Amino acid sequence: MAITKNTMVSLTYDLKIEGANGELIEQATAEKPLTFVYGAGLMLPKFEALIEGLEQGNDFNINLPCEDAYGQVDENAIVDLPKHLFMVEGKFDEEIIKVGNIVPMMSAGGQRMNGLVLEITEEHVKMDFNHPLAGEDLFFSGKVLEVRDATDEEIAATLQSGCGCDSGGCGCEETSCETEGANGGGCGCGC
Q1: Is residue 15 part of a domain?
Q2: GO:BP terms for this protein (predicted)?
Q3: If you average pLDDT over residues 148-166, what whole number do you get?
Q4: Beta pairing, strands 23-28 & 91-92
Q5: I need a surface site. Which of 5, 16, 135, 191 has the fewest CB within 10 A?
């Protein structure tokens, strides 16, 4: 069976930046494959387009320039937020808000997003809300392990989740990139 809309796909992959010989940043193995409903918007659109038609046992190598992945770094997504937003019981939360930490936040419109703390001053916290892979070219190499028709329940669960690459992340699980793709949460979008 070939990968087409509403098929359940299981695959392995190594995700590297800067080409086939680049740094390995994520992996889905045969023991913990990436499993998703194809065509449900869980993967990067270009990634999905390039695996369409593959069958069980097929290997793949996919280069995605940053424009087809998470785009260029957007300087407008790097902002200074007032330090008082990070107060807990009248005190600045130094345990969580420190340079290098990724902090879950919510926009005024209720959108969940993660911000990387870049700098802390007396009055502001500089945060970067770009996707961690913005500006990076991605290289996937992997193998299709299984392709089957998705059940009605699997399709319904996927549509109800509201997750995916366009929701600000790679699925709704709040896990690290090392496990995200392996738990079926939906990388292949590269966390």
Answers
A1: yes
A2: protein refolding
A3: 77
A4: unpaired
A5: 5
The alpha carbon of residue 79 and the mean position of all alpha carbons in its chain are separated, in whole angstroms, by: 21
Please say if the pLDDT value at position 20 is more than 90. Answer: no
Kindly state whether residues 21 and 59 are assigned to the same domain: yes
Number of domains in the chain: 2
pTM above 0.70, yes or no: yes
Q: Which domain holds residue 15?
A: 7-70+134-183
The pLDDT value recorded for residue 167 is 35
Three-state secondary structure string covering the chain: CECCCCEEEEEEEEEEECCCCCEEEEEECCCCCEEEECCCCCCCHHHHHHHCCCECCCEEEEEECHHHCCCCCCHHHEEEEEHHHHEECCEECCCCCCCCCEEEEECCCCCEEEEEEEEECCCEEEEECCCCCCCCCEEEEEEEEEEEECCHHHHHHHHHHCCCHHHCCCCCCCCCHHHHHHHCCCCCCCC
Rounded mean pLDDT, 110-115 = 91
* Torsion of Cα atoms, 170 then 129 then 66 then 60, to 10°: -20
